[in-house]
Amino acid sequence: MGDAGVMSGAALDAMTLSTAQVVTGAKTYQDQKLLLRNPASTFTTTITNPVVTANTSVEFPLKHPYKYFIYLDAADSKFKARNGLTGVTDYTSAGSTDAAVVIQNAINASSNAAGIIQLAANTTFPLVSTTGGGPATLLRLRTGTYLKGGGQGSTILLLNNTYANNPYLGIYGFNVNNVTLEDFTVNGQNFDGDTGSSGVGGNITFTNTDPAFNQNIWVNRVSSLYSAEIGIKAKSTHNFWVTNSYVEGSGLITTGPPNGGYAGIESVQNGENVIFMGNICKNCGGEAIGVYGVGSSSHRVLVEGNIMYMTADSSLVLDNGGRGHILLESDNASRDNAQDTIIANNFILAQYKNIHLKSWSRAKIYGNIITQVGFDTSIYSQDAIEIGGVCADIDVYDNNIRNCAQNGIEVTNALSRVNIRNNSIYNIGTRTANTYHGIWIEAGGTNSTDLVNCTGNIIIDDRGASKMMKDGVRVENLGSGTMTNIYCDDNYVSGETGSKYNVVTSGATITFRRNKGTIALNGGSATVNIPHRLSAAPSTDGLSVVPLSIDARGQFYVTVDATNIILNYPIATPGGTANLSYAWRANVQ
User: Fold this and answer.
1) What pLDDT, on a 0 to 100 scale, did the predictor assign at position 404?
2) Is the separation of the CB atoms in 152 and 186 below 8 Å?
3) Residues 21, 50 contacting (CB under 8 angstroms)
4) Are the CB atoms for 120 and 155 separated by under 8 Å?
5) Which of 92, 87, 47 is nearest to 68 (CA)?
């Protein structure tokens, strides 16, 4: 090509210049190549001042990544659903006050079809019209629905709060499969914690008609705010995930037990493969996270990495005494149908029963931080971890518990094979001093408890005698059943006003494989018995008895039996009350 830009056709065909880099006016060089190509062997053109210009005519982010793109058209203030395949606007609202019908039409048209229903960012979508079908709902999900926004707080579905909360629902799926909700906020507008006379019943709800069930439901990066009842709920759902979501102000009505009753996130009846991970739940009227298998089954549940709390300065606090931050509940008859659960690495601040497991089997509770800051009234907290009903094969370990109102860990009623180890428990029983215990193992009624291992826990109260806990570890039979094989080893207890280990009432036994302590006994006999509470007679290897008082000194030899370490003096010890003091250690080989 010379100074005048003379180029042969062959040379033009060989050009591979980027059309995004070389332009003349509004035409790319590639466009010119196609337009100027002719049979002549040569032609002339001139290229001057290449400029890259922005395209300002595109209304939509991409052409085909979505089934529908739903937005508020600023030109006429109407919500529109643009078909991502045809580029045609299929549905248009009557105005800007109700987007429900447009979104519902897009959902219906996308049923069982691949593709995302993309809701525009920086947009609030008011949902006013009910769509019918089952309970009256504002949006009815279909099998295959993938509803995606532009981010939590950016895309907002604003639910009509003028309906009676029953039977109206917000976003609702019935006998559906393969549904994904992602990257938006649902606001139920039940701000004032009213009696339930108004507001949408639940923000996001999946339910069924037995024996059908929902399957493959994923709620990810979704905020649920101010639902009159449950924030995010699935009934009879297999493969139900709620991840990285935020729930605030669910169930703040005055009609539930004890002052709310509705959960932030819930799986109920025949839930299998349930994962609640990375969520934040704040100020819920009932439990923050609930899993129920009453009269049915719940299998394979993972609750991990969630943050659950309520704020002391919130106006909603007095309506926030719900049943627990994490509540897993079955009935006694279906314990074996509620199993295989992990509750791990959650942060829990100030609620009622913080982790409550009832009639469950095969569960691990570990790595949780449970704390209550400065609250002393009964509305806020009870036990940090409570395991009750008929439970079996439960591991509770490596939890950090601080400042809860009642017991640190309570295991109660018909239990078998419960392992409580390596937990750190500090300053519990803030409600009433000298009443509650670091770890309380008890049975009631005709229930029997067998094989509980309580080992390696640290239990400390340093608040002074007027505020301290009562017993470090307490084993108590409150009924007519039996308590057997209760093992307590290597626990460190400090600051109790009662006993480090206390066995009360008949029918309960506590045994140790390793034990140590100090004891003061009455003098006046040549034989002194120190009860060791080991599961069998201790080995002489590692056995140690050290006199701590003057009257206890002197020559003696040691024998053992299944109950006592026996100190045999050549003559009677000096008489007195608690004048013989010893430090001792023993173990069973």
Assistant:
1) 81
2) no
3) yes
4) yes
5) 87
399: which DSSP letter? Answer: -
Please report, rounded to a whole number, the percentage of residues in the chain having pLDDT higher than 70: 75
What's the sign of the alpha-carbon dihedral 576, 577, 582, 586?
Answer: positive
The whole-angstrom separation of Cα 387 and Cα 408 is 11
Distance CA 339, CA 335 (A): 7
Q: Six-digit token pair at 462?
A: 């340093």
Task: Answer with the residue of higher pLDDT: 244 or 517.
Answer: 244
Give the residue with greater pLDDT, 16 vs 298: 298
Does the pLDDT at position 228 exceed 70? yes
Q: Sign of the CA dihedral 525, 531, 536, 539?
A: negative
| Residue 66 main-chain phi, psi, to 5 deg | -130, 155
Structure tokens that stand for 556 in this block: 């003696």
Question: Which residues are registered as beta bridge partners of 412?
Answer: 442
**Residue 211 and residue 7: Cα distance in Å, rounded?**
76
Distance of alpha carbon 163 from alpha carbon 135, whole angstroms: 13
Give the pTM. Answer: 0.78
The single residue listed with the structure tokens 């299929």 is 90
Residue 255: CB atoms within 10 A of its CB come to: 14
pLDDT of residue 315: 24
CB 338 within 8 A of CB 360: yes
Distance CA 535, CA 513 (A): 6
Q: Which two tokens stand for residue 326?
A: 């994490």
Beta strands per DSSP E along 84-236: 89-92, 116-119, 123-127, 137-141, 146-148, 155-159, 169-174, 177-187, 204-207, 214-225, 232-235
Cα first-last separation, the chain: 98
Judge contact between 341 and 396, C-beta under 8 A: no
Beta-carbon contacts of 148 under 8 Å, excluding residues fewer than 6 positions away, are: 66, 116, 117, 118, 119, 180, 181, 182, 183, 184
Q: In angstroms, rounded to a whole number, what is the distance separating the alpha carbons of residues 333 and 360?
A: 10
* Residue 331 pLDDT grade (very low, low, confident, very high; cuts 50, 70, 90): low
**334 band by pLDDT with thresholds 50, 70 and 90:** very low
Q: How confident is the model at residue 36 (pLDDT cuts 50, 70, 90)?
A: very low
Torsion (CA) 96, 99, 100, 101 in degrees, nearest 10: 90
**Amino acid, single-letter form, for residue 422:** N
Is residue 377 over pLDDT 80? Answer: no
| pLDDT value, residue 146 | 95
The dihedral region occupied by 423, where left means phi > 0, alpha psi between -120 and 50, and beta the remainder, is: beta
At residue 97, what is the residue type?
T
User: DSSP per residue over 18-50, as a string?
Assistant: -TTT-EETTEEHHHHHHHH--SSSEEE------
240 close to 205: Cβ distance less than 8 angstroms: no
Nearest to 401 by CA among 420, 422, 423: 423
